[in-house]
């Protein structure tokens, strides 16, 4: 039995689609209760930041891309207003830089971030590896709150709104109170 070229292409395409579907289902995004996946990224000054080395602190991750930077900054500004002076809690914006055109030099991106710094430390995810690992949203910030032990205690994909921020703040304060009572 001979298969037409169109049929062979359709079968091959279906096989590729199924392999992507299986790959996606095998790696679910980290959820509340999971240990946060570790990463090491650089800031614009090329200093490395490693999640595992932050154990003992509460860590708030704001993950986004250049198209939603304004929303990322809103989350960071609210966080800074409440926790700027607290050394037990830290926040990072992790920028997915895969969409930056290849002809733009990395040093230019770094210099722009130094000229116009975000409200919290900005980490550069050039290849989008951390965003893939955490399966972030492209249209809105993906938020993770990580306990002092490295466990995810809060996860949302949301533009800034006061109600969601109140939920996040409640979780941060609960973690800080728990550590103060030790």
What's a quick, concise take on this entry?
The chain is α/β, with parallel strands linked by helices. The chain has 5 helices and 7 strands; from the N terminus they run αβββαβαβαββα. The chain has a single domain, classed as Glutaredoxin (3-Layer(aba) Sandwich), CATH 3.40.30.
Description:
- The structure is a single chain.
- This protein is of the alpha/beta class and 182 residues long.
- The chain has one domain: 3-Layer(aba) Sandwich (Glutaredoxin).
- The chain contains five helices and seven strands, in the order αβββαβαβαββα.
- The chain has helices at residues 5-26, 69-83, 106-115, 129-134, 162-180, and strands at 40-42, 48-50, 58-65, 89-96, 121-125, 142-146, 152-157.
- The strands form two sheets. The protein has a five-stranded mixed β-sheet. The protein has a two-stranded antiparallel ribbon with strand order 1-2.
- The radius of gyration is 20 Å and the shape is globular.
- Mean pLDDT is 87; it is low at 21-25.
Strand fraction: 15-25%
The CATH superfamily is identified as Glutaredoxin
Number of domains: 1
Strand order in the sheet with the most strands = 5-4-3-6-7
Mind telling me the C-alpha Rg? 20 Å
Q: Main beta sheet, described?
A: 5 strands, mixed
Q: How much helix is in the residues?
A: 25-40%
Uncertain regions spanning at least 5 consecutive residues: 21-25
N-end to C-end Cα span: 74 Å
CATH topology: Glutaredoxin
Question: Structural class per helix/strand content?
Answer: alpha/beta
